[in-house]
Amino acid sequence: MAAHAHSHGASELADHRGRLATVLGITVVVLIVEVVGAVVSGSLALLADAGHMLTDVAGLTLGLVAAVLSRRPATEQRTWGYRRAEVLGAAAQAAVLLAVGIFILIEGVRRLFDPPEVVPGVMVVFGVVGLVGNIVGLLVLAGGRGDNLNMRAAFLEVVNDALGSVAVLVSAGVIALTGWLRADALASLVIGILIVPRTIRLLRESIDVLMESTPEGLDIGLVRDHMMALPHVHDVHDLHASQVATGLPVLTAHVVVDDSCFHDGHLGEMLDQLQRCISADFNVEHSTIQFESSGHADHEHAGHA
Fold first, then answer.
1. Does residue 162 contact residue 131 with C-beta atoms inside 8 Å?
2. Are strands 248-257 and 286-292 parallel, antiparallel or unpaired?
């Protein structure tokens, strides 16, 4: 006997399409401004920030597409709809950000040894424009940054941009006051260092979802112990937990119970107990339980465990 509880449709998702579209528009404007500023000033830090902005445009576009797709309803061919689109969008954004971060680090090291001339006054002007745009973008995204991986990726990108703009302004100030041209390369290295670790973490979390790893914080052994502690339960096997998308963990299990439970009408009550346990103790609302008699193990596929 198998059963599951709760549905998770697109109508339950927070709608972030407007936020993402607004920040995308702001980012495109700031990108154009910073590219012009990098060309005029010769600053690697400003060019690095502009390059980061370019990846943000691509990333935010992916995020917006993912936000649109994730709200499409489920079909017989896609029973979860496009809920996982937000995870794919986050993974794509993280991969692009990681590539940009590594490039910035390599180019920054090269310029430490051979610093070109830069115009600090121009860097300040365009750095301020970039920072203002980033702050506006952060304010727009702040309210939804914790809702899913896609929004976290978008927020992270804009945070990194803001930090990059600050680094540009600091390096411009140092060059203007001391004439130390390596400050520009040093600022670009700071930007790269800020980008890479956060990006790796986001990429790892996205890959974990795509690989159907056990959701973070969910102890499968403890889940099994709680299920085994219920009356009439002899064994729990084929216990799997994964995550379809942010906030949507799912769990399946085969539960071996007393043979008498199949004849005395007790299975319905046991199903309620098991799913209450899984939901209340582990915050997993979507579970599928298959009840089995003790003799059913002889008919299980060899790959089941």
1. yes
2. parallel
Measure the CA–CA gap between 136 and 53, rounded to whole angstroms: 14
Q: Which CATH number fits domain 220-299: 3.30.460.20, 3.30.70.1350, 3.40.50.620, 3.40.50.9100?
A: 3.30.70.1350
Q: Which CATH number fits domain 2-210: 3.40.1390.10, 3.90.960.10, 1.20.1510.10, 3.30.300.160?
A: 1.20.1510.10
pTM of the entire predicted model:
0.66
- Going from the C-alpha of 119 to that of each of 48, 86, 174, 182, 276, the distances in angstroms are 15, 41, 12, 13, 65
Indicate the helix (H) or strand (E) that contains 303. none
DSSP secondary-structure letter at 284?
Answer: -
Instruction: Give the burial string for 246-283 (b: 16+ CB within 10 Å, else e).
Output: bbbbbbbbbbbbbeebeeeebbeebbeebbebbbeebe
Query: By three-state DSSP, how is residue 230 classified?
Result: coil
Q: Retrieve residue 44's tokens.
A: 């690697």
Give the pLDDT band (50/70/90) at residue 55: low
**CB 117, CB 225: distance < 8 Å:** no
What pLDDT, in 10s, does the model give residues 106-161?
888 888 888 777 777 777 887 788 788 888 888 877 766 666 666 777 777 777 77
CA dist 304 to 28, 240, 288, Å? 51, 11, 16
Q: What DSSP state is assigned to residue 237? A: E
How large is the angle between the packed helices 182-210 and 149-178, nearest 10 degrees? 170
